[in-house]
Design brief:
Strand content: under 5%
Number of helices: 2
Largest sheet: none
Shape: elongated
Order of helices and strands: HH
Length: 35
């Protein structure tokens, strides 16, 4: 699951849809949910 989340984040970043700031928050939220 973790690898999938990372891949998704990377893909989003590549597309340019996810912003750096937003990405950080999104990652934190995902990590918390995963925990």
């Amino acid at each position: 699951m973790i690898y999938k989340l990372e891949l998704t984040a990377e893909e989003m970043q590549q597309q340019g849809l996810l912003k750096v700031g937003e990405g950080s928050d999104y990652k934190q939220m995902d990590h918390g949910s995963s925990c």
